[in-house]
Amino acid sequence: MRLHKSSLVLVVILGVLGTLHSQDDWLTPFEKSGGKETGTYNEVISFYQSLAQSSESISMIEMGLTDSGEPLHLVVIDHDQDFDFSVSREKGKKILLINNGIHPGEPDGIESSMMLARDLAQSKEGYTDIVLAIIPIYNVGGALNRNQFSRANQNGPREYGFRGNARNYDLNRDFIKSDTRNARSFYAIFHKVRPHLFIDTHVSNGADYQYNITHL
C-alpha cells in the first residue's frame, strides 16, 4: 500500500503527538504542578506499577504489611533483569537501596526517586553496573493522613503527609526497637537487598542549615 504525501505527514504528526502524550504520562505530580504538589500514596504506587508494566528492567513487589494495613513495596531496577540480589552481587554490581517517606511531610525523596526510576527505565544504557532498589513510601499511614498545617515552617507543598504513622509512631526512631509492622517489614527488605549503600531521604522542614546535606 502506498501513502499519499498528505497521509504520510499525518502519520508522522500522530506519531510525534503520541510520543509527547506518553512523555506527559510519566510526569510526576511534582512536575505537573510546577513544584507545588506532591503525589498521594495511591498516585505514587500507581506510578511505579505503570512503570513496571512498561519496562522489563523494573520489578515491583510487596514486602510485608505496615501499621496502616497497606503493604510495603519494593521497586527494583535491574537492566540485566535478574531481580536476584545474590546474582547481581556475584556479577560485581553495586546495590543501592533508597528509603523514602519515613516522614511523608518531607516528600522530596519520594518525588526524586520517581523521576530517577522513570529516567532509568527510559534510558537505553542506564547505570548497568548498579542495581537500584527503592521503597516508594515507608510511612504509608502518615502518607494517607494528609494535611496542610502540621509543618508550619515548611514552604510547600500545598498538601503533605503526617509525621506519625497509623499508630502515631515516629518511624525515624523505630529501626532498632521494631515496635511497628513497618520496621519489621523493613528488616525483611534490608536483609533481602543487603545494599552496599543505603540512603534514607529527609528534608530540613524549612530550617536554614549550614550544609545542604547531612550524613552519619
Topology (elements, then pairings):
Elements: H1 5-25, H2 29-32, H3 41-54, E1 58-65, E2 71-77, H4 85-90, E3 94-99, H5 108-122, E4 130-135, H6 140-144, H7 181-193, E5 197-200
Helix pairs in contact: 3-5
Sheet of most strands: 5 strands, mixed
Oligomeric nature of the chains: single chain
Order of helices and strands: HHHEEHEHEHHE
Sequence of strands across the biggest β-sheet: 1-2-4-3-5
Look at the helices and sheets and give the structural class: alpha/beta
What proportion of the residues is helical, as a percent range? 25-40%
Please state the CA-atom Rg, rounded to the nearest Å: 20 Å
Low-confidence stretches: 1-21
Distance between the termini: 66 Å
Instruction: Name the shape in a single word.
Output: globular
Q: Quick one: how many beta strands?
A: 5
Mean pLDDT: 86
Strand content: 5-15%
Give the count of helical stretches.
7
Description:
By secondary structure, the chain is an alpha/beta fold. The chain is 36% helix and 14% strand. It contains seven helices and five strands; from the N terminus they run αααββαβαβααβ. The protein has helices at residues 5-25, 29-32, 41-54, 85-90, 108-122, 140-144, 181-193, and strands at residues 58-65, 71-77, 94-99, 130-135, 197-200. It has a five-stranded mixed sheet. Residues 1-21 have low confidence and may be disordered.
Please tag this protein with its features.
single chain, 216 residues, alpha/beta, 5-stranded mixed beta sheet, disordered N terminus
Short description:
The protein has 216 residues and is an alpha/beta fold. The protein has helices at residues 5-25, 29-32, 41-54, 85-90, 108-122, 140-144, 181-193, and strands at residues 58-65, 71-77, 94-99, 130-135, 197-200.
